[in-house]
Design goal:
Distance between the termini: 41 Å
Strand content: 15-25%
Shape: globular
Helix content: 10-25%
CATH class of the largest domain: Alpha Beta
Order of helices and strands: HHEEHEEHEEEEHEHEHEHEHEEE
CATH architecture of the largest domain: 3-Layer(bba) Sandwich
Number of helices: 9
CATH topology of the largest domain: Glucose Oxidase, domain 1
């Protein structure tokens, strides 16, 4: 069993200063943004997100189902506007949505996880986490991401089309996938890992939620030591579930978010990108600025 070793170098203040809330987002420089945009040759685009609907899987008790209903309909709005003197019968439809910010394809804010009572950059959770959201490290601090994306396809490691729950993807697996893709992971990159598990999203939710293949802490360290900005995967949590050490739960989240200040992107749709054998691309992701939120749904794209 792998012992989880929390890194003292990342347990105190960020290398970007005591007030930093961007973490590895600091690596999204103008030069790297321009390099990613200049890499686009054809303009071909792949949508890497799943549709958000009541069919989206959710994991109790931390998550609740996605609910959407019409709050104000064309009939009601016309009636009210007629009563106010309008003659042109302008009908409008507005919905009301109830959800967690971790529904569907989404990105985690740095304040999403703690190690004990400590958050990223040594902040005290008791001082930051309020009943109304995060006072610091919320999703509003995630910068627009325009950078190089890299796809590491490990789905066939065991000879099938996908890996099974509990299957650890270790650093050697990632290194071999990078070699096969003929890419070297570099500073400012966003690495997307395809396990094949995403085929069950909203298709067989019971199976999707029973566990998942994913990276372990050594694999996460292999990536964060290369100064990636974010790690994404076609599963619920990026990391392997259940952890082979049943005394550990979500240690990859602790290392990646709290120690390294690197974002996690979950429930990605990567099958089409893999079918086209796209390994390196311009990656674009913009997170909506929900102040104090621990994450938010996103629609990332790949451009080549």
């Amino acid at each position: 069993m792998n012992e989880v070793r929390h890194d003292p170098a990342h347990s105190g203040h960020s290398r970007w200063g005591a007030d930093d809330q961007l973490g590895a987002g600091n690596l999204l420089t103008q030069e790297r943004r321009l390099a990613a945009l200049r890499s686009i040759r054809t303009g071909a685009l792949w949508d890497l997100s799943h549709e958000i609907s009541p069919r989206a899987p959710f994991l109790l008790p931390n998550q609740t189902p996605f609910l959407q209903s019409i709050w104000a309909s064309w009939r009601d709005s016309i009636r009210r506007r007629r009563a106010a003197g309008a003659r042109n019968d302008a009908g409008s439809n507005v919905e009301r949505v109830e959800m967690t910010m971790h529904v569907g394809t989404h990105i985690d804010a740095l304040g999403h996880f703690s190690i004990g009572g400590k958050l990223y950059n040594g902040l005290n959770a008791g001082d930051v986490v309020t009943d109304w959201g995060l006072d610091r490290l919320g999703i509003e601090h995630v910068p627009p991401m325009i950078c190089r994306g890299v796809l590491l396809d490990v789905s066939g490691l065991d000879g099938g089309e996908f890996l099974n729950p509990g299957r650890v993807v270790g650093p050697d697996d990632l290194a071999r996938a990078a070699d096969a893709a003929e890419v070297a992971i570099g500073a400012g990159d966003i690495v997307l890992i395809r396990t094949g598990w995403g085929r069950f999203f909203a298709v067989n939710n019971d199976r999707y939620l029973q566990g998942e293949p994913g990276i372990d802490v050594p694999a996460a360290r292999w990536l964060t030591e290369r100064d990636v900005v974010a790690i994404g995967c076609d599963n619920m949590a990026v990391e392997v579930l259940p952890n082979p050490d049943r005394g550990l739960m979500m240690p990859v989240h602790q290392h990646v978010l709290v120690e390294a200040g690197v974002h996690l992107i979950e429930n990605l749709a990567l099958d089409e990108l893999a079918r086209e054998r796209i390994k390196s691309f311009c990656f674009v992701l913009l997170a909506a600025r929900f102040k104090g939120a621990t994450g938010c749904p996103v629609r990332p794209i790949a451009l080549v």
